[in-house]
Amino acid sequence: MIEIAIALWVFLFLGFALVEGALLAWHNGTLQHAVEEGARYALRAKQQDGVTPMDEATVKSAVIYAGYGLGLTAPDVTVRVCPNGTACDALCGNGNAYATRVMGDQIRICAQYTHTMLLGSFVFGESSVVLQRQAQIRVESTP
Q1: What would the pLDDT profile of 45-59 be if each residue is shown by its tens digit?
Q2: pLDDT on residue 72
Q3: Distances (CA, A) of 88 to 14, 78, 84
Q4: 116-125 contact pairs (CB < 8 A, 24+)
Q5: Domain range list for the chain
Q6: What is the rounded CA–CA span in Å between residue 10 and residue 21?
Q7: Is the pLDDT of residue 84 over 70?
Q8: Rounded to an integer, what distance in angstroms lies between the CA atom of residue 7 and that of residue 27?
Q9: Has residue 33 got a pLDDT over 80?
């Protein structure tokens, strides 16, 4: 009985750690998929009606839609345009507005998601992890 009681805690901890790792990997993969889909969507010159020009809010909506299950909101997504020959910083802080894009520019889509850990506060002292992902794509035709 004592051996089973001790081993049970070990197996429970390993089981929760496995579930936590799987959730973290799923959230990370979903967030990366969302920004990649947003980057592909951002290349379009017109919205689905074929008349309305593409705008930043529509690109953000595409990222939010592709990140199903995460509960992303518009403030979690950033869209930046880095002019041709200029380097984008790693955090999507610099860059121009989406409407100013021209051929040769880089469009960078960044998103962040706060993953709340199941056992993190007990084991690591942290209760959440902020995941940040980005995708960058080059504009090959004029909008």
Answers
A1: 777 777 777 888 888
A2: 92
A3: 41, 13, 10
A4: 117/20, 117/24, 118/16, 118/19, 118/20, 118/23, 119/13, 119/16, 119/17, 119/20, 120/20
A5: 2-138
A6: 16
A7: yes
A8: 30
A9: yes
